[in-house]
Q: What sequence folds into this?
């Protein structure tokens, strides 16, 4: 029989061997916000073992907010975050190469109360209008373009605008302090569950501006150096992300993993969030995404100017990550 000391030594060595084996698997550090939907996807990847099956280890790093996420990404404390296409393009055009993996086509919408007399963009004239984000928010720029082209109204001049964080803008709309609000899709879903109505969605605006399909304006961002340093792990991450989305779309039981993270206080809210998440799963080729994104970039560049896009005249040539080419 082995002595107790030998058994302990064997256990220690076994543990070290296990840790060494895990250390050989490259890690992808995902920076995620407390209530960001990337936590939903990450939970599925971990619960279903999609990271190890694709040759990497997913490490979720909790971050306090968007500013913290950007700082951590630029500083290399995390390998990837969910980020804005425009910000990624600006980094690339300024010399810091970033790769973009489309994450979701769900964006946001203009929401109005259930009994609102507002039926069209023209009806926003003179109204109290909330905008989640700031004057350079991409959805706001696209809405301004659509309102001008389709309704002949300059929303920046014709409405009483209040900018703010999405939770605050949504709360003010619920309280009646605003007549209408442009907010992010997760807040739209929660408002719809309470009977609020969509006036126009960001996807509808994009189509009206001439794009052929739904466009992902948010995606996973990787620094080009990370892609070159651990190409197989990044390719594995892209595959795992797609597999997690496919599981959520095809197997309702997968949502049992996600629901505790959704802060959905009732079934109506859960179903609305689930519906809009699934509707936003990207289904198009990288080439198709880029073609339409270029059109929207031109619109936003014209309205936002250098403050928004920096010195870039278009999307950087290698902005989009192509798993087939890069992985």
A:
């Amino acid at each position: 029989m082995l002595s107790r000391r030998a058994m302990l030594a064997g256990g220690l060595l076994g543990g070290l061997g296990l840790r060494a084996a895990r250390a050989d698997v490259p890690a992808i550090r995902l920076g995620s916000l407390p209530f960001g939907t990337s936590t939903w996807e990450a939970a599925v990847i971990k619960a279903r073992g999609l990271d190890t099956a694709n040759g990497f280890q997913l490490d979720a790093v909790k971050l306090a907010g968007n500013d913290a996420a950007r700082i951590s990404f630029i500083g290399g404390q995390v390998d990837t975050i969910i980020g804005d296409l425009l910000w990624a393009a600006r980094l690339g055009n300024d010399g810091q190469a970033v790769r973009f993996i489309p994450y979701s086509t769900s964006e946001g919408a203009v929401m109005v109360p259930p009994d609102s007399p507002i039926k069209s963009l023209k009806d926003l004239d003179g109204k109290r209008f909330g905008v989640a984000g700031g004057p350079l928010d991409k959805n706001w720029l696209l809405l301004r373009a659509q309102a001008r082209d389709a309704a002949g109204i300059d929303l920046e001049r014709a409405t009483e605008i209040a900018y703010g964080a999405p939770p605050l803008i949504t709360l003010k709309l619920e309280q009646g302090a605003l007549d209408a609000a442009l907010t992010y899709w997760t807040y739209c879903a929660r408002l719809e569950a309470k009977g609020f109505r969509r006036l126009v969605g960001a996807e509808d605006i994009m189509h009206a501006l001439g794009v052929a399909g739904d466009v992902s304006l948010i995606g996973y961002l990787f620094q080009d150096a990370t892609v070159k340093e651990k190409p197989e792990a990044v390719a594995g991450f892209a595959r795992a992300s797609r597999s997690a989305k496919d599981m959520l779309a095809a197997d309702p039981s997968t949502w049992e993993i996600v629901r505790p993270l959704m802060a959905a206080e009732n079934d109506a809210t859960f179903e609305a969030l689930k519906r809009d998440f699934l509707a936003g799963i990207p289904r198009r080729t990288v080439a198709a995404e880029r073609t339409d994104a270029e059109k929207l970039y031109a619109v936003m560049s014209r309205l936002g100017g250098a403050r928004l896009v920096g010195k870039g005249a278009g999307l950087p040539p290698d902005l989009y990550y192509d798993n087939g080419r890069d992985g």
Notes: Residues 286-309 form the longest helix (24 residues).
